[in-house]
């Protein structure tokens, strides 16, 4: 199993001082920054674009930035976010005309590729592409808004995806996003996840280091 990674979602950060917020959570022990991109088309909300990511790189953020594209179509923005400095780029299969081609485009742009799985997405979408992925992102809420509660049935899906990854000896990370907090992160880790997106559970706290350390300890 990969070492646990905590990836705070900047959707819950203070955008008036975003660069500082990212540095603070990284200094507090987070390893990645999670970047939620919504287009008010594929999902009913509008968030941030590649210029914001580039500004974080220009501000000195060197940690991996994990971009989750909740947009349709995806390919043009894959290129834009790669050029802006993305490390991982994940997209939803429902938003791509050709999932394999979109994965290849991410790789061609020098980034690691992820596929995002909604609560109602059939895992068969992984059948032909699982060996080409560096990350599988399980959504434990329906995408569109932060602060939602974890969907308990997601644990079964995490178990199933972990088995699929193990069956093909894939080193891909298994990430979970939605309602993650210190009270449930242990169960999510035991189900097989190794990468954990948390928004309000981190950015909503006074002591980032304390909550991140508690989350890491719960995954052991």
- The CATH topology label is TIM Barrel
In whole angstroms, the N-to-C terminal distance is: 11 Å
Please count the helical segments: 8
What is the spatial order of strands in the main beta sheet? 1-8-7-6-5-4-3-2
| DSSP strand content | 15-25%
3D shape:
globular
Helix content: 25-40%
> CATH class, please?
Alpha Beta
Mean pLDDT: 96
Number of domains: 1
Radius of gyration: 16 Å
Indicate the CATH architecture: Alpha-Beta Barrel
Unreliable runs: none
Class of secondary structure makeup: alpha/beta
The count of β-strands is: 8
The helix-strand sequence is EHEHEHEHEEHEHEHH
Descriptive terms for the model:
220 residues; alpha/beta; TIM Barrel; eight-stranded parallel sheet; 8 helices; globular
Mind explaining what this structure looks like?
- The chain has a single domain, classed as Alpha-Beta Barrel (TIM Barrel), CATH 3.20.20.
- It is of the alpha/beta class and 220 residues long.
- The protein has helices at residues 18-27, 50-58, 75-84, 99-108, 154-167, 185-191, 200-203, 208-218; strands at residues 5-8, 33-38, 65-70, 88-91, 112-117, 135-139, 173-177, 195-198.
- The protein is built from eight helices and eight strands; from the N terminus they run βαβαβαβαββαβαβαα.
- The N and C termini lie close together (11 Å).
């Amino acid at each position: 199993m990969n070492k646990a990674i905590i990836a705070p979602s900047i959707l819950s950060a203070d955008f008036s001082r975003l660069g500082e917020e990212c540095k603070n959570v990284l200094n507090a022990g987070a390893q990645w920054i999670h970047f939620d991109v919504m287009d008010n088309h594929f999902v009913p909300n509008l968030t941030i674009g590649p210029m914001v990511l580039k500004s974080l790189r220009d501000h000195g953020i060197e940690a991996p930035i994990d971009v989750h594209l909740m947009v349709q179509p995806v390919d043009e923005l894959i290129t834009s976010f790669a050029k802006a400095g993305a490390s991982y780029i994940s997209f939803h299969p429902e938003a791509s005309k050709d999932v394999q081609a979109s994965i290849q485009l991410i790789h061609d742009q020098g980034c690691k590729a992820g596929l995002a799985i909604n609560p109602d997405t059939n895992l068969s979408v992984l059948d032909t592409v699982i060996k080409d992925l560096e990350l599988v992102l399980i959504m434990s809420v329906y995408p569109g808004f932060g602060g939602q509660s974890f969907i308990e049935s997601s644990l079964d899906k995490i178990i199933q995806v972990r088995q699929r990854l193990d069956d093909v000896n894939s080193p891909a990370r298994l990430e979970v996003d939605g309602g993650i907090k210190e009270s449930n992160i242990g169960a999510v880790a035991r189900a097989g996840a190794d990468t954990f997106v948390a928004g309000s559970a981190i950015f909503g706290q006074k002591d980032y280091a304390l909550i991140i350390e508690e989350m890491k300890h719960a995954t052991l």
